[in-house]
């Protein structure tokens, strides 16, 4: 970490620890430099980094101030710690929410997809064009499961740069992370088996379980710190859990991330009970802090951790190229893929391999992270400004979701209906659970460039929230 | 049908009915013309068509002769008409056979994929390049399930040209036919349900059933005429069959096709018992006769027929773009897709839509059919020349598979092992069944351009067959 990054991190921690609170004026650049023994230039860089991440704002002629983040974080919902659903319920309703987001007339706060304008890269288009010319008769066969070899090597190299030992041989290229998770689940379970999931959870996990006739045990999940390990331990003692499916970083929908310590405890706990871990890490690259958080997969010893990710949230939505680092399940996952989708689309595999070869991915990612941090901050500010103070909002360190909690008696389904009537979609809490514990919660997509249209939509939501019973 | 096509069809039927037999000299062009009241030019076109389809051969200075097709067709294997497998067995071995075909050193007679050189089309490459430029932020959303709208309209138009009423709204674009079949199976069954399949069957069907914990009833299937409807009727009376999965045309592995009459009887039988039909029609466009055989889907009345096909065998292997015309199951299939692979790869969907818009697909298909007929004929001739006369071989009217039957005591698994040791792959009968009824059968891929290398491989196989116990 460079000096300016160190200073930025110090200040950030101070803000998190309430040393500085929203609206406080920070020490001047000169003063900060003097106290820390750093050059003025270094301090300027630190402050600019913090500004780009939405932690502080510059006021002309005055200095830097702590940004008006809403400090009232949602609380984990306790009470019912465990819920075994004999059969997970599919909501046709989830499908309707997603369909609504396809309509360009609707403000897509309920969307699961990052703003597509973040990914309009001439370099990627060039890679696709170049693949069209390079296609040979052998290309189709060469890209069958486990998938494009160059691409698997690139992915293994990126693991290596994070200090992780993942062989290209245990990587299987899939049609996005959704296919890698679905195949992983099939590899480690049989119908009727029990799987531990987060509560609230990514609805794709609920639906995959339903489709494969698995039983779900929903584990309380903290909006900041991720899955509650005491609850998980208790569930393991109570139920014959075969696998655990969770997101270690910037969880969907809450944005929570597990600490290093918790990841260690999780991996140890699961290893002791021979439970496979499906680590859904699709948002892992979208961190706002200085370094990529290390996946639980880094702690894998027996090949029982299946690390699933993709390029859909970082580089090429719509290409449907993802992967799983599947440990000892890699051969089985190849076979399952061959009999469900045969292989991942060949031109898109080759285009991403070509793009990664020619460089520029890290530059793109840095820009993407900076923009997402800024956009999250803009949405936070609008929420802080317009929403009633009773609404609690999460403050994730990455990704592009905000999780909001209304008062316990207020219904986010009602808000969803009323907002849709005014051309705004949100993702209500009941999309993320089989029960009704999150009926007063909802998720917003914060990946869009801030605009008057969005500001107005937030104002409208604020008015609708005030009107809720 | 034009006059020359009519004449060609007449002669062809005469050959099939043994009016003319292999090696017979056909009437001269002049004589044929006189008898049929056709111009010499029309007769020349007929004879050229028959020649391109491998039915006849020209001998310089002499005239046209019936090609040396092997007349000994395999017989349907009776005996055990029904077999209920409580759990279908997956063969890791199938995976090995497919893997062997990836090695360019191996003669890929065992491959399931058509020769890739048949598909090297500059127009398709240009379509892919052009998509790279046309990609907009809205593309990803616009191509979510049910998939690219222009593509669905093109497909519906092609149905319409065959006189079929299929709305773009019941079409869902999928990652190849394998995904459309797998999603269709999930839409119409629950784990534990019973599904009628062909015997022998496409191994993908066996594997999909195993994966979804379904029970299989294997129905005797005739090498020429397809599924035995009496056996199916009997199975329906005996077992609680929920769905029937079969190939109406150029079935894999036998190459059989159902007659119009049989398709009608099938559809009526299934409708009476409220059984859904999964019609796998991936080879339907690869017909050698004058017209496309009409799918059973054309007879659908209650939306219970799910017609699954793709561009993988006809245009773009490796693109992984297929579809299902799903009748009333279309909404459910969209939801299932959204939770398993999210969507079909967007650039490949757009590229195929673009290609179809600019025309040339039918010209390509005509060339493809002509080449496949020629190549089938070349392989037939090599087999007739080298193999012992005890080996029976099928004579499909389309597709690119030949199905061969050794003597009952000879093992195609043994042949597979010995052939692989000499650098040749074949697809042994046990890949296509859960039992051992096809242990003396195997499938050959006839899609490759004939060459000395292939001729030598056939000679080697002939030697190995003679050496079998």
Structure description:
Chains A, B: This is PLP-dependent aminotransferase family protein. Chains A, B: One of its GO terms (molecular function) is transaminase activity. The structure is a homodimer of 469-residue chains. The first copy, chain A, has 469 residues and is α/β, with parallel strands linked by helices. Chain A has 3 domains: 64 residues, Winged helix-like DNA-binding domain superfamily/Winged helix DNA-binding domain (Arc Repressor Mutant, subunit A, Orthogonal Bundle), CATH 1.10.10.10; 133 residues, Alpha-Beta Complex (Aspartate Aminotransferase, domain 1), CATH 3.90.1150; 241 residues, Type I PLP-dependent aspartate aminotransferase-like (Major domain) (Aspartate Aminotransferase, domain 2), CATH 3.40.640. The first copy, chain A, contains 16 helices and 15 strands. In chain A, α8 packs across α9 and α14 packs across α16. The termini of chain A are far apart. About 2% of the residues of chain A have low confidence. Chains A and B meet through α4, α5, α6, α8 and α9 of A and α4, α5, α6, α8 and α9 of B.
């Amino acid at each position: 970490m460079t000096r300016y990054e160190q200073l930025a991190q110090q200040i950030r921690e101070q803000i998190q620890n309430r040393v500085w609170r929203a609206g406080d004026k920070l020490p001047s650049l000169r003063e900060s430099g003097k106290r820390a023994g750093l050059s003025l230039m270094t301090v300027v860089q630190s402050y600019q980094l913090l500004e780009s991440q939405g932690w502080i704002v510059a006021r002309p002629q005055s200095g830097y101030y702590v940004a008006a983040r809403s400090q009232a974080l949602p609380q984990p919902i306790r009470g019912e710690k465990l819920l075994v659903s004999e059969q997970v319920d599919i909501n046709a309703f989830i499908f309707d929410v997603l369909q609504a987001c396809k309509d360009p007339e609707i403000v897509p706060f309920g969307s699961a997809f990052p703003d597509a304008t973040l990914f309009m890269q001439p370099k990627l288009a060039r890679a696709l064009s170049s693949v069209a010319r390079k296609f040979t008769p052998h290309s189709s066969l060469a890209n069958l499961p486990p998938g494009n070899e160059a691409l698997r090597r690139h992915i293994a190299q990126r693991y290596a740069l994070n200090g992780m030992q993942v062989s290209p041989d245990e990587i299987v290229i899939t049609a996005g992370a959704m296919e890698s998770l679905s195949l992983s689940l099939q590899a480690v379970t049989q119908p009727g088996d029990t799987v531990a999931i987060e509560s609230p959870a990514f609805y794709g996990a609920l639906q995959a379980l339903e489709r494969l006739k698995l039983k779900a045990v929903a584990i309380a999940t903290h909006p900041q710190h991720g899955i509650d390990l005491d609850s998980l331990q208790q569930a393991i003692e109570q139920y014959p859990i075969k696998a655990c499916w969770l997101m270690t970083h910037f969880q969907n929908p809450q944005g929570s991330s597990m600490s290093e310590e918790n990841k260690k405890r999780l991996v140890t706990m699961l290893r002791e009970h021979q439970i496979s871990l499906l680590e859904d890490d699709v948002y892992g690259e979208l961190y706002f802090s200085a370094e990529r958080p290390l996946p639980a997969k880094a702690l894998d010893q027996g090949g029982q951790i299946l690390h699933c990710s993709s390029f859909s949230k970082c580089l090429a939505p719509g290409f449907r190229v993802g992967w799983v680092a599947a440990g000892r399940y890699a051969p089985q996952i190849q076979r399952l893929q061959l009999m469900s989708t045969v292989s991942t689309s060949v031109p898109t595999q080759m285009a991403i391999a070509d793009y990664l070869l020619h460089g520029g991915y890290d530059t793109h990612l840095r820009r993407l992270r900076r923009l997402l941090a800024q956009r999250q901050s803009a949405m936070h500010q609008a929420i802080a400004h317009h929403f009633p103070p009773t609404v609690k909002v999460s403050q994730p360190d990455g990704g592009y979701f905000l999780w909001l909690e209304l008062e316990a008696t207020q219904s986010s389904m009602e808000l969803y209906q009323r907002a849709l009537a005014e051309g705004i979609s949100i993702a209500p809490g009941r999309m993320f659970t089989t029960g009704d514990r999150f009926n007063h919660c909802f998720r917003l997509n914060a990946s869009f460039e801030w605009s008057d249209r969005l500001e107005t939509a937030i104002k409208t939501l604020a008015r609708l929230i005030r009107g809720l019973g």
